[in-house]
Write a structure and sequence with these properties.
The complex is a heterodimer of chains A (about 220) and B (about 90). Chain A is built from seven helices and seven strands. Chain A has about 220 residues and is α+β, with helices and mostly antiparallel strands. In chain A, helix 1 packs across helix 3. The longest helix of chain A has 17 residues. The relative contact order of chain A is 0.17. Chain B contains five helices and two strands. Chain B has a single domain, classed as Non-ribosomal Peptide Synthetase Peptidyl Carrier Protein, Chain A, CATH 1.10.1200.10. Chain B has about 90 residues and is mostly helical. Chain B has a two-stranded antiparallel ribbon with strand order 1-2. The chains are: A alpha+beta (about 220), B mainly alpha (about 90). At the A-B interface, helix 4 and helix 5 of A face helix 3 of B.
Chain lengths: ~220, ~90
């Protein structure tokens, strides 16, 4: 039996193993975009290792929502849920971190990749909360965990006064798209990048609809 | 050729980002935060860097720079002017 037990933000004891598991989850959830932007999986992992320790990052450890497996020591799942304005600040900060980090992506290359992916993701509006980096540990998939995580997400967004939850999902993640649709998300737009062969679906869901919610931990 | 001055570079930034002047406080554009004020987005900032480099023939390395500094109009102009003089955290091209 596996259940979702989201740990309150800021109360996770981030050991090296847990941090590595979180980086792996974020990397997987952010692909294929991350590997396109950073050039390869190794570089992406290296950059994400530094980003998760920066408090201004979208994927900062302290900003993450994670669930522990029943053993209490394994990360089972995670996600990031941010209001539109905070998301914008975090993503800008992440890009600035990339610009100031030597030995990652040369600026002219980064510029080309940013140009190629401009408009790939939805622009959250005031009142929207943006959901990103949703992942479940590979060994715990197909057990309904993602559904419970999503219920936690929607409940949390409603508590925080979100008008709408928005997300972008890679169109080839068919199981995720099905999950979101079953939870009431609708596809607003299909967005493509001129480089990298990337196509993402922008989805959103109003938060005023009743939502079944697990008794997950509170932030 | 003499190195471009701080004022020249600042004026170029303002001309390259046309809404900078409109968004600046009455005191001037120097303290205007390019991202927070919505003058440019992240990609726009990268493009602005490239435009400065091309215009003044320099290469700006932000490796040791503080984003709180270089993201303002004045800070970015100071950073680029230092590079142009040859005493910045980067080198002239």
């Amino acid at each position: 039996m596996v259940s979702v037990d989201c740990v309150p933000q800021g109360e996770v004891s981030w050991t090296d193993d847990l941090t590595a598991a979180y980086v792996a989850g974020v990397h997987d959830a952010g692909n294929p975009y991350f590997d396109f932007l950073f050039g390869d999986a190794e570089t992406a992992t290296r950059v994400l290792r530094s980003w998760v320790r920066r408090s201004s990052s979208e994927v900062a450890l302290e900003r993450s929502h994670v669930a522990l497996a029943d053993d209490g020591a394994t990360l089972a799942a995670g996600y990031v849920l941010l209001p539109a304005e905070e998301l914008r600040r975090c993503r800008s900060a992440d890009l600035m971190a990339l610009l100031t980090a030597r030995g990652t992506v040369p600026r002219d290359v980064l510029r080309q990749r940013l140009e190629a992916t401009r408009g790939l993701f939805t622009t959250a509006e005031p009142g929207d909360w943006y959901l990103s980096k949703v992942w479940v540990h590979p060994s715990l998939r197909s057990r309904g965990l993602a559904r419970d995580v999503l219920a936690d997400i929607l409940g949390r967004a409603a508590e925080r006064g979100a008008r709408r939850v928005c997300l972008d999902v890679h169109e080839e993640r068919e199981a995720a798209v099905r999950l979101y649709r079953r939870a009431g998300f609708t596809i607003a737009e299909r967005r493509t990048a001129s480089g990298g062969g990337l196509a993402y679906l922008s989805m959103h869901r109003a938060t005023d609809a009743p939502t079944a919610r697990s008794d997950a931990g509170q932030a | 050729m003499p190195s471009p001055s701080y004022a020249e570079i600042r004026d170029f930034i303002v001309s390259a980002a046309p809404n900078a002047a409109a968004r600046a406080a009455a005191g001037g554009v120097d303290d205007l935060h390019l991202l927070n004020a919505g003058v440019v987005d992240s990609l726009g900032f990268v493009n602005l860097l490239a435009a400065i480099e091309e215009r003044f023939g320099i290469e700006i390395d932000l490796g040791d720079a503080d984003p709180d500094e270089f993201l303002t109009v004045g800070g970015l102009a100071r950073c680029a002017a230092a590079v142009a003089r040859g005493d910045g955290a980067a080198h002239g091209g």
